[in-house]
């Protein structure tokens, strides 16, 4: 059996300097923090991460910034750059999401910082990376969803393309950022590399997710269509109305189809030629939906979900962002967590979703106010009270 | 500067036994393969990964199964289990996505395999993990999108919830799988753990992505609404019609708003009280859209994208899964790759999106036919031709 007597976290002792804002970078460094890294979040003096104001509620920021220490530093000042350089000198990881060229202008390029710290893993998130025809075009999530093809597959049949209600372009980028940093840390630990520069282009990251949807185009030459809540090749599969509310049923195999017919008392449909195979069922999806909904109309969503799940048929409610927290599984897991904060409202966050048998993840530090750890971090770097006061008066720090 | 004279990949020499199918597991192990791992994909004899038949085109499978060796093994037979056990004995990583309890029934539980190989990192993907009220309910992507709240935020205002056109529930799970395996490999390399069992529940993974959307609910007590292609707090931001086609414009800051007015010749709108601040612009989103589209009607989407991008305003086309490959950036990066295969059609795949400065990623092995490497892998385990023939005749292998 594996052992981990100290309940150590996988990134314990790893230090991350985080010069990112909004979602793509912060969600990635939050995951590094959950895994045990000590993350120092650099924020603009007096203004901070744009997500502190992009939405008028602080909970937006809170959901993606736990497990970080916030310090306010003006990167445009020489003293401010020196602070960040000192942090990078001791750090394992540096993550930034400025426009290409901006960190060079600040004197905080990979070349500069790796000269100070040859084992630094430096990760640059940007819309398109270097050498793109789109140059320094700011890449907002909406644009990435549009240009990557993600929007084109989302929406009703015959309707316009919609974007995913989640900031998928940002979040896909986050996941590749964390993955790449972990791969580089592992390679460094194995002695394969000293340090590394990693470039994460949002558009390229989003396009990688087209995967099987691109396969449709590679095989058939046609764009993958918008299908609302229909499945391209499986039925019954989608949204079905009960007496009160809609539910999802995903009976994607022949055996699930048979089980579904049994629960609904629709065994006669199994003899119907239109529904005899997966492909004919998909072809006659609308007719099949009508037959199924005629039965579902006799009961509530809750009753039908219980009956279907009781027969191990994948079916469930369509939760919204409020009802999901009342779900029995979600409550049992404690996925909604409250992190206590002194002197201000507690933070509501979502727990790290992965369970390790012996490694620990931890939500040890609630999201901080702007610059909450400025003095602490500077003291760790060796600045004394007088210097900190001088820097604060000069607006180098907040 | 970092060095990596051999152009080594971060997971070079790492071996992965992959007992997953469809998308969530295979996309994760594909990423491990891109990063250099040797992935052996275990498939059911004569049938294989369900994604070989879930869609009638082989390109579906191909887009998520490069960099793996396919072997056909019957896990229900004792000889088959012995083959998988022998592979796990030498492996670093084992990934499975069977229903909870199924691997135990096969004699391939974490307990059994870690007894043979105490340094094994064993990752279990399932819909809900152990100890869930949903028990062994099969978790299809559609169900996870519904139950997690992802669907609820996707769709037109006033319209029904839709799912993301990408299998987001599966792909989020994939990214957490890769991330967790890498974190455990790193922890093992550092001596923090011997081996590890990792549990990745799809529903929990998907819920973690609600992030800022959940923040809206935590702050305001209301479900996050469906907004079609409108942004909750920013405008101009969304889909706008030109003379021929729609484009996306994401002018999410005051300075982008000023730049946009200049390019469109709409400077007078900056004096309009309805549009003076971000929040009033969002409030009068429809009126602002009408003003903007009146100007955009004078030119084509291509002309306006050129003009807007030329002024560094985030704007671009809405690509579909066919047009995206004609994009100048996408072509320049070579994101659509052709992997040559002997004796059958070449495979079309999407390149790994991340660039390392010295570490390499590689698409070295095209997607294989079912059981293409069965004999090779068994020979590496020490089976001779006679044994392989006997196992094949007994349908233990394909």
TrEMBL record, chains A, B:
Keywords from the named record: Transferase
Species name: Natronomonas aquatica
Domain of life: Archaea
Name of the featured protein: CoA transferase
MF GO annotations: CoA-transferase activity
UniProt keyword annotation of Lipoprotein present: no
Signal peptide per UniProt: none
């Amino acid at each position: 059996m594996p052992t981990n007597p100290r309940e150590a976290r996988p990134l314990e002792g790893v230090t991350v300097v985080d010069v990112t804002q909004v979602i793509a970078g912060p969600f990635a460094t939050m995951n590094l923090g959950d895994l045990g890294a000590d993350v120092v979040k650099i924020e603009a003096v007096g203004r901070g991460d744009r997500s502190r104001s992009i939405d008028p509620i602080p909970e937006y920021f809170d959901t993606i910034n736990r497990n970080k220490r916030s310090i306010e530093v003006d990167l445009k000042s020489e003293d401010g750059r020196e602070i960040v350089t000192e942090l990078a000198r001791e750090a394992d990881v540096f993550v930034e999401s400025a426009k290409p060229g901006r960190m060079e202008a600040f004197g905080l390029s990979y070349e500069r910082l790796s000269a100070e710290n040859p084992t630094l893993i430096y990760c640059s998130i940007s819309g398109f990376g270097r050498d793109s025809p789109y140059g320094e075009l700011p890449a907002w999530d909406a644009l990435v969803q549009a240009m990557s093809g993600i929007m084109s597959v989302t929406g009703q049949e015959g309707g316009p393309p919609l974007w995913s209600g989640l900031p998928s372009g940002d979040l896909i980028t986050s996941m590749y950022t964390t993955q790449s940093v972990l791969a580089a840390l592992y390679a460094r630990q194995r002695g394969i590399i000293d340090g590394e520069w990693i470039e994460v282009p949002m558009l390229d990251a989003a396009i990688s997710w087209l995967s099987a949807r691109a396969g449709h185009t590679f095989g058939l030459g046609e764009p993958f269509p918008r299908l609302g809540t229909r499945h391209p090749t499986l039925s019954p599969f989608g949204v079905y109305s009960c007496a009160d509310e809609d539910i999802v049923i995903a009976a994607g195999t022949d055996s699930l189809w048979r089980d579904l017919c049994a629960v609904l008392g629709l065994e006669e449909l199994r003899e119907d030629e239109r529904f005899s195979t997966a492909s004919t069922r998909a072809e006659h999806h609308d007719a099949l939906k009508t037959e199924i909904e005629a039965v579902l109309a006799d009961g509530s969503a809750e009753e039908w979900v219980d009956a279907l799940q009781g027969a191990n048929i994948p079916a469930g409610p369509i939760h919204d962002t409020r009802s999901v927290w009342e779900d029995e599984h979600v409550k049992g897991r404690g996925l909604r967590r409250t992190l206590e904060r002194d002197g201000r409202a507690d933070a509501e966050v979502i727990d790290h979703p992965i369970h390790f048998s012996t490694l620990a993840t931890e939500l040890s530090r609630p999201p901080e106010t702007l610059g909450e750890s400025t003095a602490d971090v500077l003291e760790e770097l060796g600045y004394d009270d007088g210097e900190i006061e001088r820097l604060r008066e000069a607006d180098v720090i907040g």
